[in-house]
TrEMBL record:
It comes from Roseicitreum antarcticum. Residues 818-977 form the Tip attachment protein J domain. Residues 457-754 form the GTA TIM-barrel-like domain. It holds the Pfam family GTA_TIM. This is Putative phage tail protein.
Length: 1009
């Protein structure tokens, strides 16, 4: 037996849809229940989710108001949201007098004595139910307030918090409650003069993520930390720049203007510290951070590329410290390129003192630290450098700002005149790595300088410098000797000799000698690089070219930057994968492609095959080792010995790789927040770069939900023991999930980055990029619905939310309302239903695949009925809204109210429906959902009522069928099923395209962001 418990059709759209409106249909709770067990379950669910009492709560526009009301409801907040509060304690205003005199004396007139009255107040504001993880921005009378001069503190609302000492001093310890379970803020002697000597209306940005075990917030235990560049981006103390002053000696200046370089969020706290605070508040499961630090390469030709630290400008006076990297001063550093508006295209290399401070700050917080060296390619647009990807390197001009993985020999393999497989290739590789040795560095306290020859701008100098610097900082937990350089590691100096791999082995030995035995040391290979080299030269060669590095005694992890595709989704619903899942976000679908799909079962031989979905199976003929060619087959690659195949013939001797000998770390794991990002997670949108691209078949709009779906599917898959075998060598899982680092968190705090585009030129890339900043910490829709059901007293094993996806940035419940009412609000907004089936609540997104075809011949008329076996109804247009208006809080700025609208033009109705949602949402996403709700109403105006025999017992409410009637197939969603001797079914028309609409146009963030 099955019953529709909750439908997403909202009262704002009226009752013209048919089916259940905001919950139970008459059939669901009436006399059609045919089973005693089912009746009991139904009654229990009704009483759990929908008790009789319901009190109307505050609207969206009242969430920010601070009041002092006895008996006020304590709000429940999820995610991040701006709310006011309720004053729960206050002292009398404290008055101070300030008297000044002016005038008097001979010939000046009488003395004027002026007395001013200054007031301050101490008070406490209750915010919401605990436990919260942090407070971000604070507003007073609607304007951001600088809290640096305010004495205040916040309490998370846990069950162990002690009474506030200031309140205790005023009230007495025995009279002071701890307000356990309630998050609150205490202000001491707040100066009221800026607010007209009155208490201002104060509101707070509050963080309360739901870090359940199946959410990104609960599963992401490691992140990378960028921007990798920015001269003082990693400093933990304020750094200030002085302009226009006079130099007075010893690096000091007099006069001029002073501007903070790294205080963009809070006036007295470095951006890096704020960013870490936000990380730990929004992603409380994180316990490891990979610090990404960049130098700059200037040429794709291996033998010509210099690797240098860079600066944004060549003259700048800063205090308390000047910029320096490896003893290189600002004046001697590489100057990064500038764009058409004369802005630096990259930030400079982080100063050494800032890197040390960052490492020490993270270690002090109990975080594990991995050092991740990064190479940014500063090859500007319009350059005249010879292009190695041309015959005889004859073409002028290299791609602008390319990926470091393009660095290769010149001419490159596959082009006329190539030096690949010659001694010249080894010479070119040696030039890039250089000859720097560990002894050519001088360490003084926390400073490291270069003592080797001038002009040694090499990869070895960069890596060895940071090995010394990490040691000077007190050590790190892991260190990478390089990352994502497939163009370099696949260069051959002979038929099977890879000089760059040998050079990385030598570098690893030197780093090990500097940092010691306790360190985890590795190389972060690209996902297309780690498993072997299959040159496209017709030779049939197959080499496990990185095995000498993976098997090296100094290397104890296999690093993979994992951006493997998990989908092959296209427009419409005729493509192959559309029959596999209701939508691209479906977790089971995405997980099926972790060890399946492209790169495992099949590949596309060329772009034409990709366009037509002509898939070529991955096979291996008589050798029967298809895993050799499967970049997704981590298990087989890890568990088996490796045999090279020169000329396509398998060697009789394996490589030095020992099966199961070392764990795999996903040194990067990420997906861009762009439509169909899982089709091609490795690409990114950056107009300045030649690498800029959108994923295959992407429509180019922002999509936070697909990024979350990718991360949750991947982390959950590898956290399952059945998918992640245990090594018989080191007795731990193959994939070391606690060190799988999500790409990426930013040291520039959200929303100041991306909002301050005059400070950071890459801000516009955030919307569709890989950033987790501003996204992690939102509340998974599935987790939120489960939480509300648990709060109602339902056992967790009777709640199934696996059919939900997406997230809400913030949600507030400020009323005494039944959990069903709260879930109904979410259901209307996101478009899902809840159905009771076999004693469980199942929540399912709309737009599902039809699972059966029903014809009138398969329907049954009751013995007492006359006429047709099916009743079809089409609602009048006048019963439906022409327009739907929703109001939400803007998640991308100050949580101001934003109104979105969906409208039909050529219809015979003038009705307008409106609703306000107490949730924070990006406006363009709210507009998409609003449009879906309106279109759903119009599509659902066609309904059907019919009866089926008991043999159709497998059908449940929320299932979709194809109704074969009058020569056409119509998708119908089952709204309710009542069981007696027959199955009485109510259904409404569905169109899957309604659930795949584009978002609205992005709304620019005002200057105050």
């Amino acid at each position: 037996m099955a019953t529709l418990v909750l439908g997403a059709v909202g009262s704002a759209l009226g009752a013209g849809f048919g089916g259940a409106i905001l919950g139970f249909s008459g059939a669901a709770i009436g006399g059609f229940i045919g089973s005693t067990i089912g009746s009991v379950v139904d009654s229990w669910i009704v009483s759990s989710l929908a008790p009789a009492q319901r009190i109307e709560g505050a609207r969206l526009d009242s969430l920010r108001i601070t009041s002092s009301t006895e008996g006020a409801v304590i709000p429940r907040l999820y995610g991040r949201m701006r709310i006011g509060g309720n004053i729960i304690w206050a002292t009398d205003f404290r008055e101070e007098t300030k008297t000044t005199s002016q005038g008097g004396g001979k010939g000046i007139g009488p003395k004027v004595r002026t007395t001013e009255y200054l007031y301050s107040a101490s008070f406490a504001v209750a915010l919401c139910e605990g436990e919260i993880t942090g407070i971000g921005r604070v507003w007073a009378d609607g304007k951001p307030i600088d809290m640096s001069g305010v004495t205040w503190r916040w309490y998370p609302g846990d069950e162990m918090q002690a009474p506030d000492p200031f309140i205790s001093a005023k009230m007495g310890a025995s009279n002071t409650p701890a307000y356990r379970g309630t998050a609150y803020v205490v202000f001491e002697e707040l100066d009221l003069s800026p607010f007209g000597n009155r208490l201002p209306q104060i509101s707070f940005e509050v963080f309360r993520p739901l870090a359940d075990a199946d959410t990104a917030e609960g599963m992401v235990k490691a992140v990378t930390l960028i921007p990798a560049s920015g001269e003082f981006s990693y400093a933990t103390v304020p750094v200030k720049k002085t302009s226009g002053g006079t130099t007075i000696g010893f690096g000091q200046t007099s006069g001029g203007t002073t501007v903070a370089e790294n205080l963009n969020a809070i006036s007295d706290t470095a951006d890096f510290v704020v960013a870490l605070d936000r990380l730990q508040a929004m992603a409380p499961a994180v316990e490891s951070v990979s610090l990404v630090v960049a130098w700059f390469g200037d040429d794709l030709r291996t033998g010509n590329c210099k690797v240098r630290p860079g600066v944004e400008v060549d003259t700048k006076t800063t205090t308390p410290s000047a910029w320096s990297v490896n003893g290189v001063s600002r004046a001697d550093a590489f100057l990064v390129s500038r764009d058409a508006e004369d802005r630096p295209v990259y930030g400079g290399t982080p100063a050494d003192f800032a890197v040390v401070q960052a490492i020490q700050e993270m270690k002090a917080r109990g975080l594990r630290v991995t050092f991740y060296p990064f190479l940014l390619m500063d090859v500007p647009s319009g350059n005249t450098l010879p292009n190695p990807f041309s015959d005889d390197t004859a073409t002028t001009g290299q791609p602008a700002f390319p990926w470091r993985g393009r660095i290769t020999c010149s001419p490159a393999a596959g082009y006329a005149g190539t030096v690949d497989k010659t001694a010249t290739a080894a010479t070119q590789v040696a030039a890039l790595f250089g000859a720097a040795s560990p002894a050519q560095f001088a360490v003084s306290g926390e400073s490291v300088s270069w003592t080797g020859p001038a002009g040694e701008w090499s990869l070895r100098r960069m890596i060895l410098h940071y090995a010394h610097l990490c040691k000077a900082a007190g050590g790190v937990d892991a260190f990478l000797v390089g990352s994502e350089m497939p163009g370099l590691t696949t260069i051959r100096s002979g038929a099977s000799t890879y000089p760059a791999v040998t050079a990385f082995k030598s570098l690893a030995a030197d780093v090990r000698a500097i940092l010691g035995a306790g360190l985890s040391l590795g190389y972060a290979a690209d996902w297309s690089e780690y498993f072997g080299h299959h040159p496209a030269d017709g030779s049939g060669d197959v080499f496990f070219h990185l095995d000498p590095l993976w098997s090296d005694a100094n290397i104890n992890l296999i690093g993979i930057d994992n951006y493997m595709p998990l989908s092959d989704w296209r427009d419409g619903f005729d493509h192959i994968d559309a029959a596999l899942a209701p939508a691209i976000y479906d977790r089971a679908y995405l997980q099926s492609n972790i060890t399946g799909g492209e790169g495992f079962d099949w590949f596309y031989a060329n772009p034409s095959d990709r366009a037509t979905q002509t898939r070529t199976p991955i096979t291996d003929g008589a050798a029967a080792k298809p895993w050799v060619f499967r970049f997704k087959d981590l298990r087989a690659w890890w568990q088996n010995p490796h045999f090279n195949r020169p000329g396509g013939v398998e060697s009789g001797v394996p490589t030095d790789w020992v099966p199961q000998s070392k764990p795999i770390w996903f040194t990067e794991l990420g997906c861009p927040a762009i439509d169909r990002g899982t089709n091609q997670p490795n690409v990114f949108f950056d107009p300045k770069s030649s690498e800029s691209s959108t994923p295959y078949f992407s429509r180019g709009w922002r999509d936070d939900a697909i990024q979350r779906a990718y991360l949750e599917a991947t982390y959950l898959f590898w956290s399952t023991p059945a998918n992640n075998p245990t090594s018989s060598v080191y007795l731990a899982p193959m994939v070391h999930v606690p060190e799988c680092a999500a790409w990426t968190w930013d040291a520039r705090p959200y929303p100041f980055f991306p909002g301050l585009t005059d400070v950071w030129t890459d801000g516009p890339n955030w919307r569709r990029g890989h950033w987790l900043t501003g996204r992690l910490g939102a509340v998974s829709l599935a987790a939120l619905v489960r939480h509300l059901c648990l709060r109602a007293g339902m056992p967790e094993d009777q709640i199934d939310v696996s059919g939900l996806w997406g997230a809400v940035e913030g949600y507030v419940i400020s009323a005494l309302e039944a959990p069903r009412a709260s879930i109904s609000t979410l259901a209307r907004h996101f478009g899902f239903d809840a159905v009771e089936s076999e004693g469980r609540i199942r929540c399912l997104m709309r737009g599902r695949i039809a699972i059966a075809t029903i014809t009138p011949d398969s329907m049954v008329a009751p013995s007492s009925a006359q006429g047709d076996v099916m009743e079809l109804t089409r609602a009048q247009e006048t019963e439906l809204p022409q327009a739907l208006k929703w109001q939400v809080a803007r998640a991308d700025e100050d949580y101001d109210a934003a109104q979105v609208e969906a409208r039909r033009i050529t219809v015979d109705t003038t009705r307008i429906a409106a609703e306000a949602f107490p949730m924070a949402v990006p406006p363009e996403e709210a507009e998409r959902r609003c449009r879906r709700a309106l279109m759903e109403a119009w599509v659902g105006r066609e309904s059907a009522v019919f009866r089926l025999p008991p043999s159709r017992l497998a059908l449940d409410p929320c299932d979709v069928i194809l109704l074969d009637h009058d020569g056409r197939l119509t998708e119908m969603r089952l709204v309710s099923i009542a069981d007696s001797d027959l199955r009485s079914v109510d259904a409404v028309r569905q169109d899957r395209a309604v659930y795949d609409l584009p978002p609205g146009e992005p709304r620019e963030c005002p200057d105050r962001c």
